[in-house]
Amino acid sequence: MIELVLVESLDEIQEQREHYMNELPYSQELNTEENVWECQYYKIKMDSVWVGYFCVSLNKTLWQFYLIKSALTYSQEIFKFLIDMNYIVSAECISYDHLLMSLCFDFHKKATCSAYVFRDDTDVNYSLSSIKDISFRLAMKEDFNNLSEIGGDFFYNLEEHILKREVFIFYSDNELLGAGTCKKIYHSLNYYDIGMVVANKHRNKGIGTYIIVKLKEYCYNNNQIPVCGCWYPNYASKKTLEKAGFITKHRVIRFEFKNDKY
User: Fold this and answer.
1) Per-residue confidence band for 262, with pLDDT thresholds at 50, 70 and 90
2) Considering the domain boundaries, does residue 172 fall inside one?
3) Which of 4, 31, 68, 145 is deepest in the core (most CB within 10 A)?
4) Domain tally for the chain?
């Protein structure tokens, strides 16, 4: 018999989440982890034995699904139960999460690409000879107002991330041209999610690529593994990351499990 138990926090599924994260061939992206933080968490039991967990958002989108090895034989049965009982209506799945990807294809009604997932592939020497008096450094509290002006919805909890030394700024002659972030994704893994934003009037000048290259250098100098991603329709960001030496072999796929009438 399948039993689902709602738990109050990630702490209650932490041990199995460690197994899940370490079994993935790469770390998931920060966007996925941040969505997991906002989810509801369920333990999965079979015949009163805890065999896994899943994380689902309030709109019933599944973000993580894990089963212990001895329960994999029942994975389709359990997954179908989640759909039939209306616990999930959709899923956001990274293509290297092989179990979840397989189950999503078993039961989906519709599939679309949500995002590109990138990993570093090539060392890149990239300079901006047309821009003078360049300064690239960690942001400080006094940079807050300038960052707020160019950031739009790129930043959230900006002051906190500045204090945690996760925000970098790119100035030329005292003008803020762009900024970048470097954030640890999961506490026990050495992967760091990097990203950048460029002031509107300075876009299409190679500044975004330069910031990503500098963030890569910072990561490697600190024994960190840089990863990044971008939304699937964002072709400009995709080209920027590729110019900085990243390649994409994987996608985030959105699966729908219910017909429109449901």
Assistant:
1) very low
2) yes
3) 31
4) 2
Same domain, 90 and 136: no
- Read off the pLDDT band of 261 (50, 70, 90): very low
Residue 127 lies in domain: 123-244
For residue 54, the domain's CATH number is 3.40.630.80
| Tens digits of residue pLDDT in 21-79 | 999 998 889 999 999 999 999 999 999 999 999 999 999 999 999 999 999 999 999 99
Residues 91 and 190 placed together within one structural domain of the fold: no
| 261 located within any domain | no
* Sequence-ordered alpha helix ranges (H) in the chain: 14-23, 30-37, 75-84, 98-107, 144-151, 158-163, 207-221, 235-243
Residue 86 gets the label, from left (phi > 0), alpha (psi -120 to 50) or beta, of left
- As a whole number of angstroms, the distance between CA 197 and CA 181 comes to 9
99 and 154 fall within a common domain: no
Among residues 77, 118, 75, 78, which one has the least CA distance to residue 98? 75
Is position 62 within any domain? yes
Task: Give yes or no: residues 48 and 95 share one domain.
Answer: yes
Angle between helical axes of 207-221 and 235-243 (0-180°, round to 10): 50
Structure tokens at 24: 């993935």
Cα(218)–Cα(224) distance, rounded to whole angstroms? 8
